[in-house]
Specification:
456 residues, Uridine Diphospho-n-acetylenolpyruvylglucosamine Reductase, domain 2, two-stranded antiparallel ribbon, globular
Length: 456
């Protein structure tokens, strides 16, 4: 019976991980049902609490490596900078991409994030890399400054008689980062204070690409786990989700088709956005086994938007909250901007290298609130990590939240201190103790994009 087999696998997992301090649980916190169950006394380890449980075990046992034994699944968490270096730089072949965990982002096509290690990933990386060129970074600077001007103007319009401005940081940062990535990635212009074109879908409904993008970001997991027919049921909420994915997909395909090289004006207008640079690199590879299919172009375009929008929005939201609680940091950032501006009214793209403290605020926010709690690798064979045996098939997770607050690497680790990352203190940061973009060959391809956007 399945339950009996589960019990056998459960005992096997516990046995294989018996030498690593940790805990065990018969119900898988990463399973579909457990994702929906809130934490409770009988199930302390759920999807919402697993990282807190792991960090608590590390503190309890005074160790950097802990385990979680589950039926048919073994998980090992680490908060050690040396372990992270081993996994990402020194011995990456012993800790490979755990592709099973990334199927959720394949819904629009295979992409650089979900591709397994080896020739397939190298093909995606070779063609996506030119998209993140200095020309695109220049476009990112220009777009970010322009969209920030629009957002500030919109905020000014809400000022009341007492001079108070009330903002919705979560909503505004989401709209801002979506507007930036949409324009810098594939030339779609919208954002705060900008008129948007409605994308018609269905006889009595219209949905903008911006609205569709927000729904896709929020409901991606729901769309992946439910069959297509569910989104045609007589439920307005489900139909809205289904329509959003259709609008999003159709718009991306339409934009890709519009970049036909025969259309010189279109190519010139968007020649430095991510999509144009990706398509250019792909055309140059046409006829070889290295080129990407239409589906893979679609999948990578989705990843540019999804990874570059939701994560940065969350970081900026936290940054605003931290600055609200630390007026001294606000004052220091304001002073730096005044010094950089001089007699000018607006920042220029070339000012970024001088915004040392502003970039440090973004980095310190990522330290305290990383965009993702962990990245898990797969041990394809029996191996070791820091001299400790790791069984084949174990998922080995770099616990970013724990390493970023490890007292071994950070003085007063829970305090907001942006000066840690200023240029003059760069030598004090322990290598591999700050890894919000992961590290090594499979580190985030858009990390310079994100840091530039965040600082500005």
């Amino acid at each position: 019976p399945p339950v009996a087999l589960q019990l056998i696998e459960y005992q096997r997992s516990k046995w294989k991980l018996r030498h690593i301090p940790g805990t065990h649980q018969f119900f898988d916190p990463f399973g579909l049902v457990m994702r929906l169950i809130p934490p409770n006394y009988f199930l302390p380890c759920t999807m919402q609490t697993v990282h807190d449980v792991a960090r608590g075990l590390m503190d309890q046992h005074n160790t950097d490596l802990v385990s979680l034994a589950l039926p048919q699944k073994m998980v090992v968490f680490t908060r050690c900078a040396d372990h992270i270096k081993e996994m990402t730089v020194t011995r990456p072949r012993d800790f490979i991409k755990h592709v099973e965990l990334y199927k959720i982002v394949d819904c629009f096509g295979k992409n650089i994030v979900s591709a397994p290690d080896g020739p397939e990933w190298q093909r995606h990386r070779a063609l996506c890399n030119p998209a993140f060129s200095s020309a695109n970074l220049k476009l990112v600077r220009e777009v970010t400054l322009r969209q920030m001007d629009r957002l500030i103007a919109a905020w000014e319009q809400t000022r009341d008689a007492s001079g108070t401005i009330c903002i919705n940081a979560d909503k505004d940062m989401t709209s801002l980062t979506l507007a930036i990535i949409a324009e810098a990635a594939f030339g779609q212009k919208f954002g705060v204070g900008t008129a948007r074109d409605a994308h018609q879908h269905g006889p009595q409904s219209a949905m903008t690409f911006e609205e569709a993008s927000e729904i896709v970001s929020e409901k991606l997991f729901l769309r992946v786990i439910l069959p297509d027919f569910v989104f045609r049921l007589p439920s307005q909420r489900l139909q809205t989700v289904g329509r959003a994915f259709t609008v999003f997909s159709d718009t991306i395909y339409r934009v890709i088709r519009s970049r036909d090289p025969a259309d010189g004006s279109a190519s010139q207008a968007h020649k430095h956005d991510l999509l144009s640079l990706l398509l250019k690199a792909n055309r140059q590879a046409q006829g070889s086994r290295h080129s990407l299919s239409d589906s893979e172009i679609h999948g990578n375009t989705f990843m540019f938007l999804f990874a570059g929008h939701e994560t940065t929005a969350g970081t900026l939201h936290w940054a605003l909250r931290l600055l609200a609680r630390h007026p001294e940091a606000q004052q220091k950032a304001r002073q730096e901007i005044r010094e950089v501006l001089g007699d000018r009214d607006e920042l220029a793209s070339e000012d970024l290298p001088d915004l040392d403290f502003c970039l440090s605020i973004f980095k310190e926010t990522l330290r305290l609130y990383p965009a993702t709690k962990d990245i898990a690798k797969l041990a394809p064979r029996d191996t070791t990590l820091g001299g400790v045996s790791v069984p084949a098939g174990a998922a080995v997770a770099m616990h970013f939240d724990a390493v970023h607050r490890h007292p071994r690497y950070w003085q007063d680790p829970n305090a907001f201190r942006p000066e840690r990352f200023q240029e003059r203190n760069a030598g004090d940061v322990v290598p591999y103790s700050w890894v919000p973009f992961s590290n090594g060959a499979r580190g985030c391809i858009g990390n310079r994009f994100a840091q530039m956007e965040g600082a500005l």
